[in-house]
Amino acid sequence: MLSTIPTFLRVPLAILLVALNTLLHTSVLFVAAFIKFLVPIVGFRRLMSRGLVWLAESWIGVNSAAIALFTRTEIVVEGAESLRREGWYLVICNHQSWVDIPVLQAAFNRRMPFFKFFLKQQLIWVPLLGLAWWALDFPFMRRYDKATLARRPELRGRDRAETRIACERFRTIPVSVMNFVEGTRFTAEKHAAQQSPFRHLLKPRSGGIAFVVDAMGDMLQSLVDITLVYPAGKPSVLDLFTGRIPSIRIQVRERVLPPELLAGDYDNDEAYRERFQAWLNGIWEEKDMLIGRITNAAHPSS
User: Fold this and answer.
1) What is the 3-state secondary structure of 123-141?
2) Under the phi-then-psi rule, with left for phi > 0, alpha for psi from -120 to 50, and beta for the rest, what region is 258?
């Protein structure tokens, strides 16, 4: 293991490995995506889509190996035994740190279908990764605030239509549609500003996953509810490679999507919207208590 070498050497080496891995895999991925774009044959494009996912999983595999090589962090996953690679899942998780994404990728890569996130439109301009996400059919979404909708009412409902178009692409190969339903990373300041009723979580937002359920409800086999806990406290990416994260706990609960929520008009049916939000709030109450139990077990005297 390389976790024993001095930090001033270990961190640059880890960053260099991840950077070179990203450059190599994205270069190959861009060529494959261009070939896919040039050949308008449905079967060929479906085959190329699987190849692109294989490249992405290979990239994640190398990054995950770097975490294992350069750190002593123990990632403990419980409850994921029933997950299959050939399936369609809606995945939700609490969001605390930029570390969340590489940790989730390391824990579930090739264990379930490839994670696809709904991304903000601006992220397409991230060097290398923006184009890679586009090539992998990650949906880029525009979100309109109330002021914009009041000024341009013709935009109302466009985000839902874009979600449906994106989800149609997910029908061809197995996928895990990933959503951080809090909408942002947890901080004490955001928690206070929201007056969140949860001790360890921000308020969940149901609109995003409601649109996915509306578009894919007939093919989603379950909801995968992931609870991510850092018993030593919320970390940064630098903490990961400097060895300041001793352990990470991941609890998985596979849930049946309630039949009464599989069809409804979230935008215009207030009763449906309230039912959907109440269901998600109930999951968040359970998650909040679970995080408390895990944290207390790690710090019994606190």
Assistant:
1) HHHCCCHHHHHHHCCCCEE
2) beta
Determine contact, residues 82/221, Cβ cutoff 8 Å.
no
Give the C-alpha distances (Å, rounded to integers) separating 229 from 90, 191, 252, 283. 20, 17, 12, 16
The lowest-confidence range among 41-45, 113-117, 129-133, 195-199 is 129-133
The two tokens of residue 3 are: 């976790």
Cβ atoms of residues 51 and 29 within 8 Å: no
- The structure tokens listed for 134 are 């586009």
- List the Cα angle 9/15/16 in 5-degree steps: 85
pLDDT at position 149 is 66
For the CA atoms of 259, 262, 266, 268, the dihedral, rounded to the nearest 10 degrees, stands at: -80
Q: What is the pTM of this model?
A: 0.90
Spatial CB neighbours of 228, under 8 Å, sequence gap ≥ 6: 93, 94, 96, 100, 103, 104, 248, 249, 250
> From CA 265, how far away is CA 268, in angstroms rounded?
6
Residues 106, 77: Cα–Cα separation, whole Å: 11
Positions of E strands within 58-164? 74-78, 88-93, 115-117, 119-120, 140-141
Q: Each residue of 66-105: pLDDT tens digit?
A: 999 999 999 999 999 999 998 899 999 999 999 999 999 9
CA-to-CA dists, residue 268 to 157, 215, 271, 273, 274, angstroms: 10, 16, 9, 8, 11
Question: Residues in the chain, how many?
Answer: 302
Of 35, 62, 64, the residue nearest 49 (C-alpha): 35
